[in-house]
User: What shape does this take?
Amino acid sequence: MTAAGGPILSLRSVTKRFTQKVDLAGKIANSLGAKVRETVVQAVSDVDLDIAEGEVVGLVGESGCGKSTLGRIVAGIMPQTTGTMTWRGKDVGAMHGSERRAWQLAVQMIFQDPYASLNPRLRVSEIVGEAPRVHGLVSRGAQGKYVADMLDQVGLDGAYATRYPHQFSGGQRQRIGIARALAVKPSFIVCDEAVAALDVSIQAQVLNLFMELRQRLGLTYLFISHNLAVVEHLSDRVAIMYLGRIVEVARAEELFARPNHPYTQALLAEVPTLDAARRTYKPISGELPSPLDPPPGCAFHPRCPHAFDRCKAERPALKEVAPGHISACHLNG
Amino acid sequence: MSKATTSTPSVTPTLSVRNLRTHFFTKEGVAKAVDGVDFDVAPGEILGLVGESGSGKTVTGFSILGLIDPPGRIVEGSSIKVGGEELTTASPQRLRAIRGAEVAMIFQDPMMTLNPVLRVDTQMIETVQAHLNVGRAEALARARAALVQVGIASPDERLRSYPHQFSGGMRQRVAIAIALLHKPKLIVADEPTTALDVTIQGQILYEAQRLCRDSGTSMIWVTHDLAVVAGLADRIAVMYAGRIVETGRTADVIERPLHPYTKGLIGSVPSQNTRGHKLTQIPGMTPSLLKLPPGCSFKARCPIAIDKCNTMPDLVEHRPGHFARCWRAGEAAAA
Assistant: This one.
């Protein structure tokens, strides 16, 4: 969309539904005349997104908006219900064999919780070295050297390879998670709230590491976060998600300078900044509605200060409001 | 430890903490989680207590409420006065009477406050009747008023619900409402918005600010996020390894920080000004409290450390009301 050449990854009308089937108790209740039905959560609805090679795209939203689900779909951990995802111009759903494996290795994920995402019973040498060995990137004999290189790349001493995860601090563990993702030589990394659990000073170290690795290895990132300050610092382009849909996409400078969607404006107004001027908080009212029962029309209308009749009836489509800046709001006409 | 005090003169402080030392006597040794902390909070004032994990900020908050469990204890010579009354030597009965009525706490996780198997009205009535001899109807009316005060819509319906029927932000509001029930003089809020989304955090900050302004309640807002307290607190105290390293009015601390640690913290907050640049990073990590080096605890990570830093500096007033614990306070980082 922005860089020359086709996008490295593109999503078209990607939708993810989670269905809870009627259980036994429900079936019995139904036979007695109750009307228990399947509950369907549409976690991600109709998402279109292109990510160019070498780009950092920030994906922002509140908890429950579907940003992590979208990240998992992109990382190939979870298939979409409908829609297509293409990787370097090829439909991922149609990939088989070595082609599919190449895609799986090329897209790696870094998780939020450095405590939960590392196997506590494996040594670092195995956590980082297992995948490249299994995939034949490195021989068993060379694994030690390879792991040491990977650890060095993320700023950890190679001698730590014999330790277990519990012997590290949170920031160090996150570095191990990064080393594990890098070990299979990916070109695309999905970071799901990768710095949310870290202290501010450690967060700065890890963010700097992300920037450095991007330059050194030419990585593309999908950076998922609820922290707008972090996203603004890191991203080239930002997508804002609300209740399963992308409501605004723009280049980072543009989005932070001229937010178009009322939700984006509200989010930006809430970001705590290092501005000592005592401010009066004017919060947007209400909370994210349940995705089980999304409001009709524009999902944001119950909280929107500008909502009018059309918003309650008709869902706004994403429209270009400036070059490369799209937003889904009826206020744009 | 230091002779400096950080009080705003002429007002009797709601809370006055002197030489607070809370140590944990573990098998591995004595962890001095809080080691000589002094501060005051004036009526209606919000103090932002900022620090990273392990800095002692939460233990300071817990000490004020007498919530330190063995192997930890408040070491003799410490003083915590609320409205002039000494809490460190108070009897358990007296402490129980004070907790909830005069000093209340809001925890990071509202489920620490709320009992999952009781309805909200049951819990709130219990809290009211714990300190006041009132009937059920009167207690319920107070509970309802507290929920309205924190901006909960349809309070009657909410009172009849269980905590699991609430969203995270709503639970935190209920926890705040419970803290408000007895119109306490002081509320200790321990990272109450860390687990919440920005929009909900904005709502909670808004309620907190309104509350202190309207009712004269003092508040200690414990957080690791300088940006949160920058717009909220009147004064900020920065803690590192169990000690306050810098304290002063919010504008002074944020705009003209004296201590290299505060400078580092401010530099590590990402914002639009830092786009495309490297963030200032503080090398290394917080030292283990079990084996703190002699002298300034920050010297191993400090860009401007000198030999003198092997002796612990005092908390010294460098500008009116602006204190720092550093030999080279205010000097530009050479790094």
